[in-house]
């Protein structure tokens, strides 16, 4: 045990009337929502990188936090692991997530780096024997080191591709050994800065081959979790190949991967792509790609990914609506890819951020469930498309009518449709009744 969280007690559910700032007001993990425990709907996870590895820097300033585990040695990494599991216990967190570089320092060679990661994974394994916290997903950091400045899988140098593959192999195997439910391929620099020196088609081929290699190895070692891609439109690359869910689907479909890979969708990334979070969820669900979620928000006055804790219940209501209609997240969950602000120096701030985030998710979940149970919202939307249930509409949709057939029917029946209201304001008000 460390004394980093000294004096702080485990966070408990106290109900919406409590004035205890270090208690859950809405997140009651055992409350049944649509016949399922709240925790099992949300499957919340703590992000190792933001909560323990981030030093408080921003694009214009460096470290502001002073943590006892900040340092380059394995001893620092072990202290970090101790503190991490103490936070998991305080928050009663069922899951966590990590990159390899979050948990252990990089060595002078890949062999040394992988050995460091494996040593900390062994520490995790021992701690997990006594903890209820499990691994939601693992991933490899293929973006921070200068070797990856031109990408990892998409790099013009095949040796970088090979190095990245060997790095992923290690983390994938550790994720499997720790019982992880997912493995994420986060392409932080899989994109280009200029087309003047880029072969877009070749880089796409390389990325597809890389993913095939990961899938093949996952099958070889018996990994039963999901393989996920996390769409991101920009930052740092001028153009990312995994720009948004629709772009990812087109890529996967081209290379025959659409049945083997799903998406890990982040709120902040959706906004950087000029989409809403619900848009990305709806598109993923429509293509069968909805795998997991990174919960956060951006400062909409800033042009980068600020990774703040979620605090908008209405946004999460619409998100959970699509998730629940999709049948839930399955092996996925809500990873808090969120960090306290660089001025939030106290250990308690880590608790406040996660408490607020979980309460926001709980409110969104319950509101979405009530919206679905009420049925008015679905009936209104269904009524808008009821015409497509007709005989001729179905014939058109199923390819039983040619363009000529359709044109003849329009002329014969003198079809001249009048526009109908989309009822947007009514639906917005309806949703707000349940938030």
Characterise the protein shown here.
The protein is α/β, with parallel strands linked by helices. The chain has two domains: 32-374, Divalent-metal-dependent TIM barrel enzymes (TIM Barrel); 384-434, no CATH class. Helices cover 46% and strands 10% of the residues. It contains 16 helices and twelve strands. The protein has helices spanning 38-42, 48-53, 74-91, 100-103, 110-130, 158-177, 200-221, 245-254, 267-272, 277-286, 313-325, 347-374, 376-384, 391-397, 403-412, 424-434; strands at residues 32-33, 36-37, 44-47, 95-99, 134-139, 182-185, 191-192, 226-229, 239-240, 261-266, 290-294, 334-336. The strands form three sheets. Strands 3-4-5-6-8-10-11-12 form an eight-stranded parallel beta barrel, surrounded by five helices. A two-stranded antiparallel ribbon has the order 1-2. A two-stranded antiparallel ribbon has the order 7-9. Strand 11, helix 11 and strand 12 (334-336) form a beta-alpha-beta unit. The longest helix is centred in the last third of the chain and has 28 residues, at 347-374. It is globular and about 80 Å long. The model has no long low-confidence stretch (mean pLDDT 97). Belongs to the xylose isomerase family. It catalyses: alpha-D-xylose = alpha-D-xylulofuranose. One of its GO terms (molecular function) is xylose isomerase activity. It is an enzyme of class 5 (isomerase). This is Xylose isomerase.
